[in-house]
Every structure is written in C-alpha cells, then in structure tokens.
Amino acid sequence: MSKDSQMRAAINQKLIEMGERERLKEVLRAKLVECGWKDQLKAHCKDVIREKGLEHVTVEDLVTEVTPKGRALVPDSVKKELLQRIRAFLAQHATL
Amino acid sequence: TSIVPFPNGNHFWTDSSPAGCSHVNGYKVDNWKQNLRVIYQCFVWSGTAETRRRKAKSCICHMCGAHLNRLHSCLYCVFFGCFTKKHIHEHAKNKRHNLAIDLLYGGIYCFVCQDYIYDKDMEQIAKEEQRKAWKLQGIGEKYTTWEPTKRELELLRHNPKRRKITTNCTIGLRGLINLGNTCFMNCIVQALTHTPLLRDFFLSDRHKCEMQSNSCLVCEMSQLFQEFYSGHRSPHIPFRLLHLVWTHARHLAGYEQQDAHEFLIAALDVLHRHCKGDTINDNGKKANNPNHCNCIIDQIFTGGLQSDVTCQVCHGVSTTIDPFWDISLDLPGSSTPFWPLSPGGDGSTVNGESHLSGSTTLTDCLRRFTRPEHLGSSAKIKCGGCHSYQESTKQLTMKKLPIVACFHLKRFEHSAKLRRKITTYVSFPLELDMTPFMLLYPYFECCNASTLESGHYTSFIRQHKDQWFKCDDAIITKASIKDVLDSEGYLLFYHKQFLEYE
C-alpha cells in the first residue's frame, strides 16, 4: 500500500474509532438534502431508470451512471465545510 | 390491506412491505436473528467505543486491503470484500454464500437475485440496531417518512368525525369576518394558516404552553388552526385573536387600518416570544438564549442577511450577519433610483416571469437588493484596516434563506408631505430560482400572495399543489393562476421545496 493510502486508512480508522465518521456522514447527508442535491440526483436516477427500462435496470447501472454526476454536483461550500471539520478533528487527535 | 389517504397525496399500504426474497430462507435458521444483530453492531452501526475500535481495525477487504469501494460483509462467514472490485462476488460464488451486507448503509444484497432485498424481519432488526447505535453516539433520530401505526389506523376507522382529504376538498379554507378595518389582519392569518409547515406543527399539537395566563398567542393560533380545519364553512370571527394582538402589540391597537406587513412582523415577534415552552436545543434541553432560539417561528421564518462593507482604499471587508423575517424590496417609481436594467437584460427570463414589455420582475428587485452600493463621500465609514474614514461599497447577500421567505414590496413612500403608494406592477413567478443570489438551495414555490388595493387587503392562498383561492375577508372564491400572477403583489411568501422534517 502506498504512503498515501496508508495515511487514508489510518485517518479512516481514527474517524471510525471516535465515532466521528458516523457524525460527519449525518452532517453531510443533511446538507446534501438542504441544498437540493438529493432531489437532483433522485431525478437523475429516475431518468436513468426510464432510459434503461424498469425491468432491466440494475443497481450497478444506477451506481455507474449516477456516481460521476453526484460527485460533480456537491457544492464547493459543502466540501469545504466537511474538510474543515475533518481537519479540526485531526488537529485534536493528532497522534497519527 | 387498507388504504388511508393523507393530505400530502401519499397512500400507505398497511400490511404489505417492500420485497424480500426466498433466498434468505437458507439464512433464517437457528439463532440467525442474534447473529445478524451482532453483525450490525460490530461492523455496520457500532455504538460503543469497543465495537468502533474493532470495526476500525477489521473492516478492510480480505482480498485487497481497501476500506473504501463499498465494502460488504458476508452474512454466512467472516469475510469482508469490496463490492466495486467484485471481491465479495468472488467469495459468494466460491463459497456459495449468497447473502452479504453493505457496511456503509446496512443494506442486504442477494447474489442470486443480484439486487438489494428488503426482508421485513431483517429490516426491523436493522432499524433497531441503527437507532440503538445512534442513540449511544448522540446522533439523534434518522429521518423516515411517517407511517400510521396499527392503533392510529384503528382510531381513524372508528372515529366518525375523521376527515378524508381528496384533491377537491376545501378543508382548511375559511373566511374571516372583518371586525372593522381588520382586513390587514385577515390576510396575514390566511397566509399563516396556509403555510404548510406551520399548519403541520399546530395540527400535530406540538405547542406545550408555559404561560400562566390565558394570553398566549401561540395557543390562540393553535385554536385558529382547529377552527380552520374543523370543516365548518361559515366564516370565523377572530375577535379573540384581535384582542390578543392589541394586548401584546399596543402600536397596532385601534380600529384604524394598519399595515399588513407591520402586523406580520409584530405577530411573528409575539409568537416567537410565546414559544418559549417549545424551544429545545440540540441536547434536548430547554434553550435559555433568545439568540439561539429554535422555536417553530425561527425554524420556519428566520433567515440570515449578510452585509459586506468594503473599504475602497485598502479593500478590507467588514462583515455582519443579521437575522431577518422578511426582505423589503425597493420598487421602481420610488424616489430612490431603481437599478437601470437594460430591456430584456441577462436573466430577465430566469424565472419564466411574464414580461409585459418592460415590466419589473421580482428577480429584478432581488438583483437590485443584492447589488453592490457605493456609499458616497458623505457616508464614509471608519475602516479598521486604514484606521481612518474612507469611502466604501456595501453589498447585501442572503446568506441563509428561511424555509418560508417573505418578500415585502415597498409600496409605501413617506415623504415630509404625504404618504404615497407606488402602484408599479411587479411580476412574480410561481417557482422562484434563487441560484443567482446564493450558493445553496435553489427552488422556492409561491404559497401566498397578499395584495392591497383601494385600501383593502386580500390574499391569494395555495391549496394542494396547484389550486388557488382568493380570500377577501369572509368571502373565499376559487382563483386562477393568472389571477394570482396578475395581482399587484405586496407581500409574497415563498416556501422551500423538498424538505425533510425533523
């Protein structure tokens, strides 16, 4: 594993251990609903389903089609805030 | 199964559940429920420090070591594999273990069906374990759509006074008797009783009164909602409401015609003050700080207005954010010059507003409100950076828009000699896109429009999705969308679309 992914894994472990990951997930989810991201993606999912046909579409289809758009649509302000929170968390528990 | 219709148009099937599959039968043997609970507690929703430590260390793919890639755990044995890289699929095939669980969201995947399945019993366990873990971590309740319980359905079936909401029913509509120039109050009452979130708060009995006397305005509002949704078609006489308003907002007392906007702000203020019993902060304790109030009024109506003052010399910016309940917008035709807009200028059709050639739109007014304004040489501010008085520009932005945004068109101009009404027509849209003005949350829907003509206030309110009614004191008539959009708006209420309720 590269140094980078080692660092990622270590940070992830710390976040899980302290319960922060679950809290951050919920903060993110609430923000994404508030800014309309969830509804935009929901509409996009419906389009994909319509396109592929309800009987033929698979979870994989949806994940493949929706992930890039989902990532692109996250507002910068939300990314910034999450990043700040993670930074603050690491600063507090900086024994990595 | 039975169908129970509800006002938001959803129907609830009471006995059936989302699809499970027959392939779980092989799993549902012996002590499977306890085994499943352990998996949830250890690897999905870990509530205790010990389970979290274990989860942090052990939840990596047994084939490639990654912790991302939609990790799944096999339900039959201790194996973690990436879903994205199909490592869990390989395991499922090799060992003929056909079920796995998504460690991020707890969903159960069946490799035979090649889909996530929703077995009733497993869903129940998942829900309980998540609630347990979140409670331990102090995260709070997960949002789920409301469904009636068996007991609630029973009560509904046996109560002869139950009301069935269909798309054509007029429940919630009631006229208001004019008690002597009180149309200003009537149109605000109509606006408030037709604000969906406020209605839901009161109809679900959420107000717990802490006032000793009988003068709680929130209790009176609660009573008002009961009157409006009682099914009575005769107009209501709001004399108690009027009396309470006179008691708590002395400047509005008397039988003269008052300004509806002033009444709205006064009413919100009194309601906010009387909501003390309902104010709960994040820790479940009663909040004592009036600046961090979480009452229903603040939750629905309070926004944040940011003011940035930029020094023209050092370009330092001084920022303040103030709470607001309404945005007052200047209109063209007033003595302060309106922002000159080129005809059909950029964004003039942003909201699909009807443009009788050259007519001003609500978006134009908002654009003017948020444009940078040069404060002239007679209005220099003390710059903290330059340590001297400098010229500056000021710009307002709506930092946080409330759930219900009230736009007040400043139709009244007071000069030394007279009070003038600006009758410039301002077109407003049914759907308001706020993206030109702020980063988050674009869509708002018009839910009320109050207008003042010839000294008389009337309001248009929205019922169900696309039906409008005109409220003229005691008289309620059906209105067309065109009637609404052609009216000379004075107070416009916009409601955020798509919400989760807390």
TrEMBL record, chain A:
<dbReference type="GO" id="GO:0000124">
    <property type="term" value="C:SAGA complex"/>
</dbReference>
<dbReference type="GO" id="GO:0005643">
    <property type="term" value="C:nuclear pore"/>
</dbReference>
<dbReference type="GO" id="GO:0003713">
    <property type="term" value="F:transcription coactivator activity"/>
</dbReference>
<keyword id="KW-0805">Transcription regulation</keyword>
<dbReference type="GO" id="GO:0006368">
    <property type="term" value="P:transcription elongation by RNA polymerase II"/>
</dbReference>
<keyword id="KW-0509">mRNA transport</keyword>
<dbReference type="GO" id="GO:0071819">
    <property type="term" value="C:DUBm complex"/>
</dbReference>
<dbReference type="GO" id="GO:0070390">
    <property type="term" value="C:transcription export complex 2"/>
</dbReference>
<protein>
    <recommendedName>
        <fullName>Transcription and mRNA export factor ENY2</fullName>
    </recommendedName>
</protein>
<keyword id="KW-0156">Chromatin regulator</keyword>
<keyword id="KW-0539">Nucleus</keyword>
<keyword id="KW-0804">Transcription</keyword>
<dbReference type="GO" id="GO:0005654">
    <property type="term" value="C:nucleoplasm"/>
</dbReference>
<comment type="subunit">
    <text>Component of the nuclear pore complex (NPC)-associated TREX-2 complex (transcription and export complex 2). Component of the SAGA transcription coactivator-HAT complex. Within the SAGA complex, participates in a subcomplex of SAGA called the DUB module (deubiquitination module).</text>
</comment>
<keyword id="KW-0010">Activator</keyword>
<comment type="function">
    <text>Involved in mRNA export coupled transcription activation by association with both the TREX-2 and the SAGA complexes. The transcription regulatory histone acetylation (HAT) complex SAGA is a multiprotein complex that activates transcription by remodeling chromatin and mediating histone acetylation and deubiquitination. Within the SAGA complex, participates to a subcomplex that specifically deubiquitinates histones. The SAGA complex is recruited to specific gene promoters by activators, where it is required for transcription.</text>
</comment>
<comment type="similarity">
    <text>Belongs to the ENY2 family.</text>
</comment>
<dbReference type="GO" id="GO:0006406">
    <property type="term" value="P:mRNA export from nucleus"/>
</dbReference>
<comment type="subunit">
    <text>Component of the nuclear pore complex (NPC)-associated TREX-2 complex (transcription and export complex 2). Component of the SAGA transcription coactivator-HAT complex. Within the SAGA complex, participates to a subcomplex of SAGA called the DUB module (deubiquitination module).</text>
</comment>
<keyword id="KW-0653">Protein transport</keyword>
<dbReference type="InterPro" id="IPR018783">
    <property type="entry name" value="TF_ENY2"/>
</dbReference>
<keyword id="KW-0811">Translocation</keyword>
Automatic annotation (TrEMBL), chain B:
<keyword id="KW-0863">Zinc-finger</keyword>
<dbReference type="GO" id="GO:0005634">
    <property type="term" value="C:nucleus"/>
</dbReference>
<keyword id="KW-0479">Metal-binding</keyword>
<dbReference type="InterPro" id="IPR038765">
    <property type="entry name" value="Papain-like_cys_pep_sf"/>
</dbReference>
<dbReference type="InterPro" id="IPR001394">
    <property type="entry name" value="Peptidase_C19_UCH"/>
</dbReference>
<dbReference type="InterPro" id="IPR018200">
    <property type="entry name" value="USP_CS"/>
</dbReference>
<dbReference type="Pfam" id="PF00443">
    <property type="entry name" value="UCH"/>
</dbReference>
<keyword id="KW-0862">Zinc</keyword>
<feature type="domain" description="UBP-type">
    <location>
        <begin position="19"/>
        <end position="136"/>
    </location>
</feature>
<dbReference type="InterPro" id="IPR028889">
    <property type="entry name" value="USP"/>
</dbReference>
<keyword id="KW-0833">Ubl conjugation pathway</keyword>
<dbReference type="InterPro" id="IPR013083">
    <property type="entry name" value="Znf_RING/FYVE/PHD"/>
</dbReference>
<comment type="similarity">
    <text>Belongs to the peptidase C19 family. UBP8 subfamily.</text>
</comment>
<dbReference type="GO" id="GO:0004843">
    <property type="term" value="F:cysteine-type deubiquitinase activity"/>
</dbReference>
<keyword id="KW-0645">Protease</keyword>
<dbReference type="Pfam" id="PF02148">
    <property type="entry name" value="zf-UBP"/>
</dbReference>
<dbReference type="GO" id="GO:0008270">
    <property type="term" value="F:zinc ion binding"/>
</dbReference>
<keyword id="KW-0378">Hydrolase</keyword>
<dbReference type="GO" id="GO:0006508">
    <property type="term" value="P:proteolysis"/>
</dbReference>
<keyword id="KW-0539">Nucleus</keyword>
<keyword id="KW-0788">Thiol protease</keyword>
<keyword id="KW-0805">Transcription regulation</keyword>
